[in-house]
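Appendix C reproduces, verbatim, an entry submitted by the partner laboratory led by Prof. M.T., so that reviewers can inspect both the input and the predicted structure.
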Amino acid sequence: MKTQVNTAQQIIEISLTLMIERGYNAFSYANITDRLEIRKASIHYHFPNKSDLGRAVVVYYRALVQQSLNQIEQASDDPRRQLAMYIEQVHKQLKEDNFFCLCTLFAAELPTLPENVRDEVQGYFRDQVTWFSALLTDGRTKGIFTFGGDPEIEAQSVVAAMQGAMIAARTYQDPERFRAIALQVSSDLQK
């Protein structure tokens, strides 16, 4: 049983990398067989269809991101520092790992995604808004962040800016663009 779990996890991890490279619609089981040197039947054993695998990959990705956000919260209770840690973490991933947010990529493909994958992608963005909303509320309460209106609406703006900054970094193949935009967003919150 352990081998089956390990194989399923390997398939998810390889698929995550491939989906970040190619998107959902340009990805196929053949891409996995090339990387893992297993037969398509083995993939179908764990994930009967592409939407099952797509959903599993997004669930896995959401868990990784949530774990990262939890680590940021544990490392500091200062909202300014937490935001800086978030920015530096994403910048480092862009720079060192050629990272790109899977759900940002999938959001562009949303109309063509299967419903179960689409639901997970939307859940990812809800997670992000929830985290940033709590961060912004805490920062405003502590006199660190200044913004008008509802923290959830502001959080949606911050999430959109961060995702857009990742797109700019990828478009220009320049991780520094993400950092510059994200730092400007941070600075604007502290005026």
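Residues 115-141 form the longest helix (27 residues). Additional entries are available on request from the coordinating office.
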